[in-house]
Structure formats: structure tokens, C-alpha cells
Amino acid sequence: MIRILSSQQIKALDAYTIQHEPIASIDLMERACRAFVNWFTERFDGRNTIAIVCGTGNNGGDGLGIARMLQEWSYSVKVFVIRGSSETEDFKVNLERLRGKVEVVEITSLDETIFSEYDVLIDAIFGSGLTRPPEGLFAQAIHLMNKSVAVRIAVDIPSGLLADKVSKGEIFKADFTVTFQMPKLAFLFPSNHSFTGTWCTVDIGLNKSFIKEQQTSYYYIAAKDIRKILKPRSKFDHKGTYGHALLMAGSYGKMGAALLSGRAVLRAGVGLLTMHVPECGYVILQSSIPEAMASIDEHIHFITAIPELDKYTVVGTGPGLGQDKLTVKAFRKLLEDFRKPVVLDADALNILSDNRELLLLIPAGSILTPHPKEFERLVGKWSDDFERLDKQKSLAKQLKSVVVLKGANTSIASPEGAVYFNSTGNPGMATGGTGDVLTGILTGLLAQGYSSLDTAIAGVYLHGLSGDIAARERSMVSLIASDIIEFLPAAFKKIMHEQKV
Ligand SMILES: NC(=O)C1=CN([C@@H]2O[C@H](COP(=O)(O)OP(=O)(O)OC[C@H]3O[C@@H](n4cnc5c(N)ncnc54)[C@H](O)[C@@H]3O)[C@@H](O)[C@H]2O)[C@@H](O)CC1
Ligand SMILES: Nc1ncnc2c1ncn2[C@@H]1O[C@H](COP(=O)(O)OP(=O)(O)O)[C@@H](O)[C@H]1O
Ligand SMILES: [K+]
């Protein structure tokens, strides 16, 4: 897991690294500049004219160091400095090192065309030291940079964006953000995408053991975390080893959702799958998923009862379920009778929103997978993404269950208060049915004995990874939910290194 630290902790981390590596502060800055420049030179060639706009703190110091290095690489660079109330030592040193090499212009007033002749604008005004909204020349410069047609790149953090609080005022709108060491919490929220653009982290060698010791509730999921979670199969395993899942899904006109979920349960590696569907789904199910056993409801159009539950390891429900009052009754009975974890999605969540007393019946250790609208129905409106995150953490705690809030960088809240952000997935997945596939993957993994949290982390990651492979093979535009099931085996292989065998 990549630990996401606050600005305060990052400041302490810088100081700790400087003291214990040991390394001079200016040399650490040099490393940060080098990491940025490595990223930059791989993407932009010497034909680009570059303006670097610097503040007078260490972010500005980075900007000056970057200017020097780019000049050494024969790029055409000009530096603009906006003076704040004070200069850091490393800013001063880097300004001195730049003397005679790169033109430095101090901005005292701004005219509209100041940045118009450049191909690339690099923002090094503020980084993690920002404490309040930019004003005056700072705000005006950011405003003008945002109006420019140049490619905009932020050093560490887009100026004006706070790493772990709600930001107000003028904020640099980067096409790319190259951030040091680890993602910042604010980068993971939908509302900040227009500021960070595409972001990436570059390693500047900050002290790893200090990072490990820091208290944090926020993590960014990496491939190796999933490799650690997934258990390899052993020679004498049999289908009983991998659980028996019951999927209650589908209604007249929405059997597709049930099928997508059911196929995904199987591809996630379950031992046995039974699907409880309304009568209208019988032929559809038997002819399209021969691997699944069918349990048929008495009602033609929707589910009105639950089958005998004893033999099931886990129950997944919601996709295509509908909200008829007889279905609500059956759902209530499920929650009353089944004491093992359940996976709840789509209409199961909508039923919970309309029948709030049912929330109390959810077995501990369950997994809920709302998209933002379903989440709003469950918890009410939020005023910003930080409040949304708090609501997600509270719901997970209240239900003693894992709450998976879906979207880009899906967040997974544990009942203990930790939040894990997904690093896979792409906008090609914004198409009907992909959530049903996720429900299936989670149901299939949970049935195999993974903990609810491990199931959610691995399932969400693999779902996104499969979506990424599918987008590569089929394009984001053409990606459909079935593709995510189709490429799930490739995603498992990628994680478990089976392709080496
Ligand atoms: N050794 C280190 O500390 C390292 C720091 N690095 C860089 O240093 C940055 C952090 O540097 P600083 O802590 O100097 O802070 P910044 O350079 O982000 O901000 C400069 C100063 O501006 C002032 N300020 C904050 N908000 C303001 C506002 N709205 N208007 C006017 N002034 C405002 C603050 O006093 C702050 O200290 C990181 O983002 C990163 O880019 C990197 O060089 C890596 C090593
Ligand atoms: N822009 C995106 N980037 C990454 N993943 C996405 C994006 N848009 C949607 N997804 C993923 O696709 C799935 C959509 O689920 P959901 O909204 O429930 O769809 P449906 O109800 O049609 O099945 C979620 O897992 C979500 O994380
Ligand atoms: K910046």
C-alpha cells in the first residue's frame, strides 16, 4: 500500500530525511528537480519554449533548479518569480546558481499576454506550503496561466490546491502534475481532477521507514498489495474449497444484470454458483450460464422469496433486482436469516435507502457498493468531497461493513476507519453493467474465504485492471461490461504472474 500522508507529515518527512540520510536540504531539492526533469525530458523535446513561474518558497526553489537543469539540456527556458513575504534558503541558493544562465524576470504587474508565447508553462508557485487562498499577483498569475493554450505542468501540487483540505480561490489547472514521492489526498477526488490533470508520482528517496511509521487512514492500492492478498491454488483443492455463492438478481427486462454478475462470480473463481432468479429468467439463465445452478422464484417477473440459505457461503444481491414490495419483503427475510456477509449493490441499496430500518439487519462484514447517486440516497447530500469521504467512513463504521464508493479512484472504507483508493480503471468503464460485474467479482472472491476488506481491495483493483486491459484491446469507447468479464482472466494472470509458467 502506498501511504498517503498529510502536508504536515510530508514536511516532517522531508526534515527527517535531511537529518537521517543525511542529506543537505538543497541536495534533496536537487533530487526532486532531477526527478521532475527526467519525467519532463521523456515527454517534451527541445522545440518547446518553456516558462517556469516560481514563488519564493521551496516549490519556487524547485522551479529554479528545474530551470537550470532544463537549460543544461539545451531547452529554451525563462523564469518568472512572484515575490512573497519571505524566501527560503534553498530558493536563494538556486536563484544564485541560475545567475547568468537563465533569464529571470520578477513579476511586479501582469499584462494579459505575459505567458502567451510559451508552449509549456511550469507552475512552481506553491506546493505543500500553501496555507491560504492565493491573492493579488499570485491569483492573477494563476488566472492568466489557466487562460493560456500552453501545456500546463504543476511541480508537486497545482498552486492553490491544498493537499488535504477543501481549497478555495484561484487554483492552477494542470494538464499534468508531477508530485513527489506519494499522491496527495486531494488528487483522488473528482472535484480536483480539473486542477491536477493526469498526475504521477516520482520517487525522490524520502525515508521509507519514517513513511511506514506515520499514522494515516489513507492508502493508495498497488499491484503488489493484490499479489499478497490472492492465494494460489493447491493441488488437492476441490470445488468445496472455493465456496458456494448465491446470487439473487434479475427481474423482467433486467436479466442482463443478473447474467453479467453471475458470469463475473464464476470468473472470480468461486467453487459453486447458484442463481436465484424470477421464473422469466429460467431459460435465459440455463441457456447462457451453464456453469450456474438455477433456483427459480415462484413469481414470473421478480424475486419474491429466498431459497434455503444453509449451504451458501455468501450471498450477493441487487443487480436488476427491482424494488417491488414483494422483493423488499424477500430482501428483508434474507437479511434476517442470513448471518454471514452479503454483497449489496444497486436495487438492494435503493431498498435500504427507502427502508432504513433494514440497515440494522445487515450482517457485520458485508460489502456495500454504491455509485455516488446510490450513496447520496443512503447518506444524504454532501457539500464537498472531504465531507463525502467522512460520510463514507461513518457509514462503514456504523454498519461494521466495507463501503465501496465507486467511480474513478473508487474508495473502499473499512469499519475501522481506513480508506483505500483504487489505482486501476478508466472512463471506458462508465457504461451500463460494469457495476454488476463488480458485484459478481466481489461475491465470487468473498465466497472463497477472503476477508471482506481483502475482497473489496482485490476485487475493485482486478475489476479496474480488467477494464484497463479491455480498453487497451477494444478502446475505451467500445468497452462494454462483458469485456470486463472477458479480460478478468488476463487481469488475474497479470497479478499472479501465471504467464511466466
Ligand atoms: N526539503 C524539502 O522541504 C523539500 C521541499 N520540496 C518542495 O517544497 C515545497 C514546499 O515548500 P515550502 O514549504 O517552502 O512551501 P511552498 O513553496 O509551497 O510555499 C511557500 C510559502 O508561501 C507562503 N504561503 C502559503 N500560502 C500563501 C498564499 N496564499 N499567499 C502567499 N504566500 C503563501 C507560506 O509561508 C509558504 O511557506 C514542496 O511542495 C516541494 O515542491 C522539494 O524540493 C523536496 C524537498
Ligand atoms: N471514469 C471512470 N474511471 C474508472 N472507473 C470507472 C469510471 N467510471 C465508472 N467506473 C467504474 O465502473 C463501475 C460502474 O458501476 P455502476 O455505476 O454501478 O454501473 P452499473 O450500474 O451500470 O453497473 C464502477 O466500478 C466504477 O468504479
Ligand atoms: K506548484
From TrEMBL:
Span of domain YjeF N-terminal: 10-212
Cofactor notes: Binds 1 potassium ion per subunit.
EC number(s) on file: 4.2.1.136, 5.1.99.6
Domain YjeF C-terminal, residue spans: 222-495
Chain sites annotated for binding K(+): N59, D123, S159
Subunit structure: Homotetramer.
Function: Catalyzes the dehydration of the S-form of NAD(P)HX at the expense of ADP, which is converted to AMP. Together with NAD(P)HX epimerase, which catalyzes the epimerization of the S- and R-forms, the enzyme allows the repair of both epimers of NAD(P)HX, a damaged form of NAD(P)H that is a result of enzymatic or heat-dependent hydration. Bifunctional enzyme that catalyzes the epimerization of the S- and R-forms of NAD(P)HX and the dehydration of the S-form of NAD(P)HX at the expense of ADP, which is converted to AMP. This allows the repair of both epimers of NAD(P)HX, a damaged form of NAD(P)H that is a result of enzymatic or heat-dependent hydration.
Protein's name in the database: Bifunctional NAD(P)H-hydrate repair enzyme
Name of encoding gene: nnrD
